[in-house]
Amino acid sequence: MAKRNRLWGFDDADRALLAAATVDLPALRAVVARAEPRPDLGLWLVKASLRELDDMYSLVGALMDGTRSRRRLDQLDGLLASLCTSIDRF
Predict the structure, then answer these.
(1) Dihedral angle computed from the Cα positions of residues 5, 11, 81 and 46, in that order, rounded to the nearest 10 degrees
(2) Could you give the CA distance from residue 69 to residue 46 in angstroms, rounded to a whole number?
(3) Which of 3, 9, 16, 56 has its CB 3.0 to 4.6 Å from that of 43, i.e. a possible disulfide?
(4) Are the C-beta atoms of residues 53 and 87 closer than 8 Å to each other?
(5) pTM for this structure?
(6) What is the pLDDT of residues 14-70, one digit of tens each?
(7) Nearest CA-CA partner of 77 in 61, 58, 89
(8) Taking the CA atoms of the chain, what radius of gyration do you get in angstroms?
C-alpha cells in the first residue's frame, strides 16, 4: 500500500471503544493516541497511513464478530463506514 496519509475522524464514544480495544495493540493504540480533538466538528481527527487504517478496519471487523449487542454493532458499523470513507476518499 502507498504511504500517503489520510484523515480519519471519530467521536468520543468511538475513541473510548478504540482505546479499550487497542490496549494490547501498540501500533493501533498509537493511531488513537495521535488523534486531536476538533470541538468545532465534534470529532477526534487523526492522520493515518492506509496500512494503519486497513489494520484498524480489520480490528473493528473482529470486534463486530465478537459482539451480539445491537448498540455496539451499530457503533462498530459506523466506525467501518468512516474508515471506508477515509480509505477510499469518497
Answers:
(1) 0
(2) 27
(3) 9
(4) yes
(5) 0.90
(6) 999 999 999 999 999 999 999 999 999 999 999 999 999 999 999 999 999 999 999
(7) 61
(8) 12
CA-nearest of 80, 36, 39 to 60 is 80
Environment class of 85 (CB within 10 Å of its CB; exposed 0-12, middle 13-18, buried 19+) = middle
Cell representation of residue 48: 493515518
Helical segments of 1-90, H only:
12-21, 26-34, 50-65, 70-88
Structural domain boundaries in the chain: 5-88
First-to-last C-alpha distance (Å) of the chain:
18
